[in-house]
Amino acid sequence: MESQNITQAPKFLLLGLSDDPDLQRPLFGMFLFMYTVTVWGNLLIILTVSSNRHLHTPMYFFLSNLSLADIGFTSTTIPKMLHDIYTTQKTISYVECLIQLTLLNFFGCMDNLLITAMAYDRFVAICHPLHYSVIMNPRLCGLLLLASFCISFLYCQLHYFIVSQFVFCGDVEIPSFFCDPTILLNLACSYTSSYSILAYCLGSIFGGVPGLWILFSYSQIVSSVLRVSSSGGKYKAFSTCASHLSVVCLFYGTGFGVYFSSLVISSDKSGAVASVMYILVTPMLNPFIYSLRNKDIKRALKKLLSRITYM
Length: 311
Known about the structure:
By secondary structure, this protein is mainly alpha-helical. The chain is globular and about 65 Å long. It has helices spanning about 25-50, 60-75, 80-85, 95-125, 130-135, 140-165, 180-185, 195-225, 230-265, 270-295, 295-310, and strands at about 5, 10-15, 90-95, 165-170, 170-175. It contains eleven helices and five strands; from the N terminus they run ββαααβαααββααααα. It has a three-stranded mixed sheet with strand order 3-2-5. Strands 1-4 form a two-stranded antiparallel ribbon. It has a single domain, classed as Rhopdopsin 7-helix transmembrane proteins (Up-down Bundle), CATH 1.20.1070.
């Protein structure tokens, strides 16, 4: 069969997580519940931060934007997956596939950069507490958010360019519930070595540099906290980082899990299941981490819920 460009292929087939008909209803119910919890949990964080003036600080400014990015990150793939399970029509057009992977890369990069900005905020708060209000001023916070947006846009456009160069032979079956660029790279019948190297270089730069900055920030934080003489002061300093550190571990832990599963696990379905942890479980747990481990959020959340109850 003669090779044809991907733009000539009318549709792709998303195989999803399971072909078992008996599992479709339980999967639909479970993912609908998880997606609902994710959206409402992150919306509640945004509403809580915006409605309480005591939370109008750089840390919670980045947290509310992280919640917004989490909603976008999850909404890029899960509604389509729910639609496919419910209708059993698992096709996606070429244009929809490109839009999905572009948005997924955009919001994923935004998550990474916002978590990095939050790490910088904790670094300044603990290592330079006397200059915190001067350094973390509203102008710098706005610039960090704008930089995160621009870098994420550049990252997703580069991935769009890479995937748009792929050539496929005949029908394309994607063994996942979304258009995963890594899987598309393996399914392409054209020469993709140069694009593969470029994709991994982009991932190393846009993912590795923020990760290294987070490691540097926390190494400085630990060094600064260990110099505190009182145990109470050490506990207070570490407690201000507990929620963010939990989010960092969850985000990078599931991200590396997806990456290494694609290299080690031979089953494509297992890789798709690992992607669920990264795409859905992590954004769902972030609001719980901040609401359960953060006294300010819990206090503001109680006020907000009591206000809503008495309305």
